[in-house]
Request: fold
Amino acid sequence: MNMKRLISEWKKEKIGQSLVELTLVLTLLLTLLIGMVEFGNLLNQYIMVVDAAREGARFGSNDDPFIRTTTPFGLNANFFTNIDQIVEGSFDSSGERAADAKGALSPLTLRPDKGDDVVISFFSISGGVLTRFPTDHPYGWSYYHSKGYTGRNSLFTVSDLQGRVHQGSLSAPNTGMVLVEIFYSYDQILHFWHFIGIPDPINVHTYAIMPLSSAEPTPTPP
Reply:
C-alpha cells in the first residue's frame, strides 16, 4: 500500500515538474518568436527608410542648387523641395503634400506630429573647410519646420563632417556634397517590448551622403 502511494506521489511530482518546464520553455520560445517578428518588421521598414534617403540624395547630386535663381549665386529653393518630394511625394497646387503623394518612402508615411522629418543640407568644401547651406538654416532645411511643426535638426554638425573629409594630413579636394536625413517613428506591431523598457514608437534615423559637384566653391552662374 505504501509502495503504491509512493509511486502515485512520484507520478504527480513528475507531471508537475513537466508542466513547470513546459511553461518555462514555451515562455522562452514565445519571447523569441515575438522578437523575431518585431525585429524583422523593424528591419524591413528601416531598409525602406535607408533606400528613400539614398534616392533623395542621388536625385540631389544631379541637381544644381545655384541655378534658376533671381539673385546671382543665390540658392534655388526648389533644390530642397524637389529632394523632399522624391522622398515623400509631390505637393499639390497649394504647396501642401498631396493626399495621394507617393515618394520613395511609400507605403510608409512620416508623421510630423510624432517628430518625423526629412532634413536636407548641402556643403561646399574648399581647402578642407565646409560651408553649410542653406546658411539661414544652420541645422538643415526641413519642410515641416515651415508648416509649424517642431521638426528635427540635422544630427551632423559641420565639425562632424569636417572630420570625415580629413584623412590624417590630407584634406578633401574642392567639391561639394548633399546630405539627406530621415527621422522616422516605428510603431511596434505587437507592443510587447514596450513593457520591458524599449520605447514605442522606436525612433529611427537614417542618412545618405552623395557628392554634389555643382556645390564646388566656384558655383555655376545662373
Q: What stands out?
A: The chain has a mean pLDDT of 82.
